[in-house]
């Protein structure tokens, strides 16, 4: 439906990741009009993952809409996942508006929202926020963090061949970056706040990393922190005192968080725990008709929700919308 040049949808979904797509598929099955608005490329977060990343989950656990995810590998990689979700869009002919940023979600009546984007305005009876947590990196807040040689998003190891690289972080992203750049000839140093590798490091990768550290191929500073970055060096605070190392690149795999400012702007309550307020049975927030889906629901606890255990959010939300629609 279209009124005064503004398209009106039963459901408007923010985010074209796997969970946003799952919501669209369920809406389509329920004969609800819908649209997905995405600020970047299709499955933008997955697109920005490291090129050679391998998922922890099997392909079956990443499937949505009942469409088989076929791979010859025990665990699918990033490139296979990006292609799979592109095929999902083709198979279900999903309506997705790419490279269009949502700027405002405003409740205009009890049963209607106005959604302003970088390109136009939409009307929606219900809005689903499925934006994940990969948008905002956790900053280190050290001098020199704004230098061009510092990145919070690692993609391809070739850039770092034969360079002095400092990898900050001891979870999957940090371990993968350290191993991949080391195997492209980089001189890699790992900086780890704790006394050991992160507890969530993939079980088939952990021994590899431990052996590289043990043999000295990758130098690791445990119980240490980064205190300064300059054009040619980094300064570390270690249990043995300050250490200065020659450095060409810093890969800061310090983690990410949902766009809390965006959620607050939409009017969603954020308690001190930074976990958005929502009904766990319906996924509805404190604002009627405004829902959360996927890993964004976990707030700062980014190890709580994944694709495989949040796919169910799509059915929960659409079922609640349909119950309310039938009542009305």
Feature tags:
328 residues; alpha/beta; FAD/NAD(P)-binding domain; 2 domains; 8-stranded mixed beta sheet; 5-stranded parallel beta sheet; 18 strands; 25% strand; elongated
Describe this structure in words.
The structure is a single chain. With 328 residues, the chain is an alpha/beta fold. It folds into two domains: 2-136 and 256-327, FAD/NAD(P)-binding domain; 139-252, 3-Layer(bba) Sandwich (FAD/NAD(P)-binding domain), CATH 3.50.50.60. It has helices spanning 18-29, 44-47, 78-92, 172-183, 206-215, 260-266, 307-310, 312-327; strands spanning 2-3, 6-14, 34-37, 96-97, 102-109, 112-117, 121-129, 136-137, 150-151, 164-168, 187-191, 219-221, 225-229, 233-238, 241-246, 249-252, 256-257, 290-292. Strands 1, 2, 3, 4, 5, 6, 7 and 18 form an eight-stranded mixed sheet that branches. A five-stranded parallel sheet has the order 9-16-10-11-12, with helices on one face. The radius of gyration is 22 Å and the shape is elongated. The two termini are 19 Å apart.
User: Any guess at the CATH architecture of the largest domain?
Assistant: 3-Layer(bba) Sandwich
Q: What order do the helices and strands follow?
A: EEHEHHEEEEEEEHEHEEEEEEHEHH
Helix proportion range? 10-25%
Poorly predicted parts? none
- CATH class descriptor of the largest domain: Alpha Beta
**End-to-end distance, in Å?**
19 Å
CATH homologous superfamily (4th level) name of the largest domain: FAD/NAD(P)-binding domain
């Amino acid at each position: 439906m279209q009124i005064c040049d503004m398209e009106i949808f039963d459901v408007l979904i923010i985010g074209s990741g796997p969970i946003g797509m799952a919501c669209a598929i369920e809406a389509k099955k329920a004969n609800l009009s819908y649209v997905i608005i995405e600020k970047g490329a299709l499955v933008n977060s997955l697109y920005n993952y490291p090129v050679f990343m391998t998922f922890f989950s099997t392909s079956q656990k990443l499937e949505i809409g009942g469409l088989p995810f076929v791979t010859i590998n025990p665990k699918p990689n990033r490139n296979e996942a990006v292609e799979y979700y592109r095929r999902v869009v083709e198979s279900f002919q999903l309506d997705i508006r790419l490279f269009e940023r949502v700027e405002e979600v405003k409740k205009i009546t009890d049963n209607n929202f106005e959604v302003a984007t970088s390109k136009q305005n939409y009307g929606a009876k219900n809005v689903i926020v499925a934006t994940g947590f990969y948008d905002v990196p956790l900053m280190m807040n050290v001098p020199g963090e704004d230098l061009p040689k510092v990145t919070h998003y690692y993609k391809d190891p070739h850039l770092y061949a034969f360079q002095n690289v400092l990898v900050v972080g001891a979870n999957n992203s940090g371990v993968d970056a350290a191993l991949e750049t080391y195997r492209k000839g980089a001189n890699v140093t790992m900086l780890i706040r704790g006394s050991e590798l992160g507890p969530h490091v993939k079980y088939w990768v952990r021994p590899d990393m431990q052996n590289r550290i043990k043999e000295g191929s990758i130098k690791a500073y445990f119980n240490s922190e980064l205190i300064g970055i300059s054009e040619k060096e980094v300064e570390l605070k270690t249990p043995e005192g300050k250490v200065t190392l020659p450095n060409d690149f810093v890969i800061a795999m310090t983690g990410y968080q949902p766009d809390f400012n965006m959620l607050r702007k939409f009017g969603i309550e954020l308690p001190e725990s930074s976990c958005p307020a929502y009904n766990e049975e319906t996924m509805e927030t404190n604002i009627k008709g405004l829902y959360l889906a996927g890993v964004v629901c976990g707030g700062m606890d980014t190890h709580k929700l994944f694709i495989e255990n949040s796919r169910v959010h799509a059915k929960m939300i659409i079922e609640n919308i349909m119950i309310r629609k039938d009542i009305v």
